[in-house]
C-alpha cells in the first residue's frame, strides 16, 4: 500500500516574487501544498509561479485574472468609496471614486500584461460584495455593479462569478491552473474582517486617487 505524502513533507523553496510584490505577505499553506500570498484590502498580487493567492472578503470585491496560455495571473482586493452614487461608471468618467475602481482593475491587468499575459487571452473570475457592513448596506452592491460594468465595457471574458449574499468569503486563487476556491464564512469568531474593511473604507474616502492608469 502506498503511503500518502503529506504536503508539509515536501516544501520547495519559496518562489521569487515578481518586481514590486516583495512586500506582500507569503507563507507555506499546508492545506494546498504550495506557497500562498495573503492580500489585505487595497492590495493586489501577480505571479508567474505555481502559488496561490488568498484573501478574505466582506463587502470588498476581488477580480481573479489570468492568461491561461502563459499561466501568468493575479488577484486584487478593492472597495469603492461610498460616495460613488447612482449611475454607471462610464457615464461618470471624471468621478474620483470611479477612477479609484478603474485604477484597481487596471493596475492588476497591466502587471499581468507586463509579465507575459496577452490582453485578448485574459479570463476573469469575480467574487465578493457581501452585505456585511450593517451601517453601509449598499457598498457591496456598488462594488458588484462597478466590477460587472467594468468587465463588460472592457470586453473581458468572465468564466464565473460568486457575488453578493450576506456572508464574508475566504478566497483562494491559483493563476497557474485558474482554480478559484470560495468558502462562505457563516460565522466569524471575531470582528477582524469587518473592522479591517471599515478602516479601509474610511482611508479611501479621505485620500485622493493616485494618478491615472491606462490599459496597454
Automatic annotation (TrEMBL):
SUPFAM superfamilies: CNF1/YfiH-like putative cysteine hydrolases. The keyword Hydrolase applies. Its EC number is 3.5.1.44. Keywords: Chemotaxis, Hydrolase. Pfam families: CheD (PF03975). GO terms for biological process: chemotaxis. It comes from the Bacteria. This is Probable chemoreceptor glutamine deamidase CheD.
Amino acid at each position: 500500500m502506498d503511503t500518502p505524502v503529506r504536503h508539509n513533507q515536501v516544501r520547495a523553496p519559496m518562489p521569487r516574487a515578481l518586481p514590486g510584490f516583495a512586500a506582500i505577505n507569503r507563507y507555506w499553506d499546508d492545506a494546498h501544498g504550495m506557497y500562498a500570498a495573503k492580500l489585505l484590502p487595497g492590495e493586489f498580487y501577480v505571479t508567474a509561479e505555481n502559488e496561490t493567492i488568498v484573501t478574505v472578503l466582506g463587502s470588498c470585491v476581488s477580480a481573479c485574472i489570468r492568461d491561461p496560455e502563459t499561466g501568468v495571473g493575479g488577484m486584487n482586493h478593492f472597495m469603492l468609496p461610498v460616495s460613488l452614487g447612482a449611475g454607471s461608471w462610464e457615464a461618470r468618467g471624471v468621478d474620483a471614486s470611479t477612477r479609484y475602481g478603474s485604477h484597481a482593475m487596471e493596475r492588476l491587468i497591466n502587471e499581468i500584461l507586463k509579465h507575459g499575459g496577452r490582453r485578448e487571452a485574459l479570463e476573469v473570475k469575480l467574487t465578493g460584495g457581501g452585505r456585511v457592513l450593517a451601517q453601509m448596506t449598499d457598498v457591496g452592491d456598488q462594488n458588484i455593479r462597478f466590477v460587472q460594468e467594468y468587465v463588460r465595457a472592457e470586453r473581458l471574458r468572465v468564466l464565473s462569478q460568486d457575488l453578493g449574499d450576506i456572508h464574508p468569503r475566504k478566497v483562494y486563487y491559483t493563476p497557474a491552473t485558474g482554480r478559484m476556491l470560495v468558502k462562505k464564512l457563516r460565522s466569524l469568531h471575531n470582528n477582524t474582517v469587518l473592522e479591517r474593511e471599515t478602516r479601509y473604507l474610511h482611508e479611501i474616502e479621505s485620500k485622493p486617487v493616485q494618478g491615472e492608469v491606462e490599459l496597454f
